[in-house]
Amino acid sequence: MAAQYYLQKRIIGAFVDFIPHGETVDAIVTSPVLVPDEDPEENWTDYNMGCAQDVQFESETEDDEDYCPALTGGYSKTITRTTVRDEIIVTLKDHSEPIFRLLFGLNQKLTGLTGQQPFENLGDREITGWLRLRGIGAAGSTDETLANVKVEVKMRISDYPGWTKDATKPVVAFEVQSNALNDLIDDGVLTA
């Protein structure tokens, strides 16, 4: 019988592209029902947030416990676990406009042309849009794309170490939204 799994050691890095809803990209206005394609590639790379230093995939679950009498006496317990939320936590190397917009609690995109009232947004500081996470591996000296994950998300600052003499690396949480347009292209995952 042939092996069922392709075993491999991989060094995996990632690049993060994020397009907020309401942006006009290649003549379409992005929304939960309209996601940009990759022709031309600049549709996404124009919204690049840089290199990810670390990417973690986290799930929040809830358990439901049921007890039934056992035929041999006592009770048996059954636990049903349901995933209620998925998040992609990314440590970024660089800052970008969405990071500052969230950090300063702004209601609108920074343009550099007009001032805004900082910390005006007292609600949930998040930006909804489309995330493309490009997983890149290193096989010898050749870079390879392992997977492109494209999902609708709500982006929030997860952790911000502050302004210090050291380089500041913002940590961003992308909460995945359920959307039929979410997509995974995994052509490079199972190849040598």
Put the structure in a nutshell:
This protein is 6% helix and 48% strand.
Structure keywords:
two-stranded antiparallel ribbon, 192 residues, mainly beta, six-stranded antiparallel beta barrel, globular, 48% strand, 2 helices
Account of the protein in words:
The protein is mainly β. The chain is 6% helix and 48% strand. It has helices spanning 42-45, 97-103; strands spanning 12-20, 24-25, 28-29, 48-69, 75-92, 127-139, 142-159, 171-176, 183-185. β6 and β7 (142-159) form a beta hairpin. The model has no long low-confidence stretch (mean pLDDT 87).
- The helix-and-strand class reads mainly beta
Termini separation comes to 20 Å
The number of helical elements comes to: 2
Helix-strand topology string: EEEHEEHEEEE
Query: Tally of extended strands?
Result: 9
Mean pLDDT rating: 87
The residue fraction in helices comes out at under 10%
Using the CA coordinates, give the radius of gyration: 21 Å
- Main beta-sheet strand count, sense and barrel state: 6 strands, antiparallel, barrel
User: What global shape is seen?
Assistant: globular
- Estimate what percentage of residues fall within beta strands: over 45%
Give the topology.
Blueprint (H helix, E strand, L loop, with lengths): L11 E9 L3 E2 L2 E2 L12 H4 L2 E22 L5 E18 L4 H7 L23 E13 L2 E18 L11 E6 L6 E3 L7
